[in-house]
Amino acid sequence: MSVIVVGSTALDSIKTPKSSNPRLLGGSASHACVAASFFSDTSLIGIVGKDFPARYLNLYRKHQINLDALQIVPGKTFHWSGEYEVNMNNRRTLATELGVFETFSPELPKSLQKVPYVLLANIAPALQSHVLDQMRKPKFVIADTMDLWLNIAMDDLLKLLRRVDAFVLNDSEARQLTNDDNLPTAIRKIHRLGPKYVIIKKGEHGSLLSSPKGLFLAPAYPLQKVVDPTGAGDSFVGGLIGYLASRPGSVDTNLRRAIVHGSAVASFCCEGFGLNTTTKTTRQAIVKRVKELEKLVQF
Ligand code: AMP
């Protein structure tokens, strides 16, 4: 089955203590679409300016990502830049230049309105809702977010949460959203806001799913070296929904395995700048890491 992803389509300039990498392909939707494409037909909803390099469009195409709902308009592509500290966990945003995002109104062609699996990747919650308004009876809707929206668009986010099946956020965002330092109680509070499934990302410490089947802990793949974690969360949720859409059976049956597939894809993302390593990996390499992760938690 197929997946539709809305989110940011960006040029990212990423600084680490060791190097500077200007204008890489980035954005939550780019990372998520490439990750999902290893498992399912994937369509991208986004906007870029005329400055968006043709080689990045080709990269989407190499992954067979459907670009019918990618708007290419006069103006500048969304540009984000960030800088990592030596530990590669703490990140500072240096600049966010909205460019063509300022006037973005995602419109879906009819052919995409019946896609069953919907990923509302990180973008303003009002835009996520606008996409959801256009979908016809999707089978599974998952939303991601970031601290910015908790700070400036809480009402929109709360409206969205009533309408999604699953919500994924990182541990600090869960604490901020609920005003609760204890994760299990924070999770309970998030369920009350609407989502049946809550997935908390904990970076290098993996993730935690809360569902009607109870709690599930998934490890992160233990990497010897992290080159650039930008987009790891987006790759995680992209791999997750791509895998889910590729499996017969219910979400409840497949979600745990889907999360582990998301972890495996995210690990490739962290091994190179931007999408450099993710785009070079294969489904077989991802599945190999899933098997290693499986062994890691058997006892
Ligand atoms: P992550 O590392 O998972 O937090 O995601 C990083 C990606 O988020 C980068 O590729 C950025 O282009 C994108 N991003 C940063 N700020 C925003 C924003 N305000 N809205 C949407 N996407 C953003």
Structure description:
By secondary structure, the protein is of the alpha/beta class. The chain has a single domain (2-296), classed as Ribokinase (UDP-N-acetylmuramoyl-L-alanine:D-glutamate ligase), CATH 3.40.1190.20. It is 37% helix and 26% strand. It has ten helices and 13 strands. The strands form two sheets. The chain has a nine-stranded mixed β-sheet with strand order 5-4-1-8-9-10-11-12-13, sandwiched between helices. A four-stranded mixed β-sheet has the order 3-2-6-7. Strand 6 and strand 7 form a beta hairpin. The protein is globular, with a radius of gyration of 18 Å. The model has no long low-confidence stretch (mean pLDDT 97). Adenosine monophosphate binds at residues 8, 10, 12, 26-28, 80, 96, 122-123, 148, 230-234.
List the helices and strands and how they pair.
Elements (H helix, E strand, L loop, with lengths): L1 E5 L3 E6 L4 E7 L1 H10 L3 E9 L4 H9 L2 E9 L5 E6 L6 E7 L19 E4 L4 H10 L5 E5 L2 H6 L1 H8 L4 E5 H8 L4 H10 L4 E5 L5 E5 L2 E5 L13 H15 L4 H20 L12 H14 L3
Parallel strand pairs: 1-4, 1-8, 2-6, 4-5, 8-9, 9-10, 10-11
Antiparallel strand pairs: 2-3, 6-7, 11-12, 12-13
Helix pairs in contact: 1-8, 3-5, 6-7, 8-9, 9-10
